[in-house]
Design goal:
9 strands; five-stranded antiparallel sheet; 11 helices; single chain; alpha+beta; two-stranded antiparallel ribbon; globular; about 15% strand
Length: about 325
């Protein structure tokens, strides 16, 4: 990106910009669909520019990615200002020409990204997840889809968007049982009462400590959309956190109870409905199975308790 182009973008984000000092490439996007650039300007103003170009995607996966950038643009346009005090960057200016060219201008992360999520940082992540979920809980998640442009199904591993991985699953053993149960699990999650808008990709590299260290700030809102809240928790526990061997026996219960407490502190009550511990634990088991279903066809990664947990869920008749 040359300085003239960077200046034009930065001035759209902040009218006080008069000079671009330098630009720095931060990342390239999946499948060559664009890039993220940091623009440093006068008076210590910094603008992050995420520029996407994905015209005429052809493969199933590229179409999913292209749609996800539209969703992310809608999030920063319509919702980031309400949450940017702690859990997301502020969307300063967004453009979508409707033909695959999208520009999202935002404030920078307050701190470097987190690459090791445990201890107090793990609780900070849960506090931020609870705030995000509380903001969209219940009918508000449906409104965010119908009027705010968020995805009808949040996350990137839901069954309808992963037919190739489903078809790659073995028909034998635990994997075969999960394959047979996958559609019933998916339907249970879709119909579950704990609906919200999921972040959909809660890896630690998509977080930084917030300016308020009790929270983390999230990036990468491509896959934000409606879904059972436990799906975000399952992914966070398996793929986002660095966990000890006592997770299932000790930490999982503590984390779930803390999450429920944080939902309540964000205004949810029994009429919302506020999850019960038993209800959330049941939903989490469904979400673990759903996540493992995708991994069986794509590749298993993350914390190692997942496979055995899913086997026990299936043996105990989760569906």
């Amino acid at each position: 990106m040359n300085k003239a182009e960077a200046l034009q973008l930065a001035q759209k984000a902040n009218s006080d910009v008069s000079t671009v000092i330098k630009t720095k490439s931060i990342a390239r996007l999946w499948a060559g669909m664009g890039s993220i650039v940091q623009i440093e300007c006068n008076d210590s103003i910094v603008v992050i520019a995420k520029r996407i170009s994905c015209r005429n995607p052809t493969s199933f996966g590229d179409k999913r990615k292209a749609a996800s950038y539209v969703v992310e643009c809608n999030f920063y346009s319509n919702y980031s200002r309400e949450l940017c005090d702690t859990i997301c960057c502020d969307g300063l200016h967004c453009e979508d020409d409707g033909s695959g060219n999208i520009t999202i201008l935002m404030t920078p992360l307050p701190n470097p990204t987190v690459h090791y999520l445990c201890g107090e940082n793990a609780y900070a992540a849960l506090r931020s997840v609870a705030r995000l979920h509380a903001h969209f809980w219940g009918e508000r998640s449906s409104e965010a889809v119908s009027t705010g442009g968020l995805a009808p199904q949040g996350s990137y591993w839901y069954l309808d968007t992963r037919p190739d991985e489903y078809n790659s699953m073995s028909r034998r053993g635990t994997e075969g049982k999960l394959r047979s149960a996958a559609k019933d699990i998916d339907e249970k999650l879709k119909a579950h009462p704990y609906q919200t808008c999921l972040h959909g990709d809660l890896k630690s590299c998509n977080m930084s400590l917030s300016s308020d260290p009790r929270y983390v700030t999230f990036v990468d809102f491509q896959y934000i959309g409606r879904g059972c809240a436990a799906k975000d928790l399952a992914y966070l526990f398996v793929c986002g956190m660095d966990l000890d061997d006592d997770f299932e026996n000790v930490l999982e219960e503590k984390f779930l109870k803390f999450y429920i407490e944080e939902l309540a502190s964000n205004g949810l009550d029994s009429s919302s409905p506020l999850p019960t511990f038993d209800g959330l634990k049941e939903a989490l088991d469904l979400a673990y199975c759903d996540l493992y279903r995708w991994m069986c066809g794509w590749g298993v990664w993350g914390n190692g308790f997942l496979g055995d947990r899913v086997r026990k869920c299936l043996e105990n008749g989760i569906v």
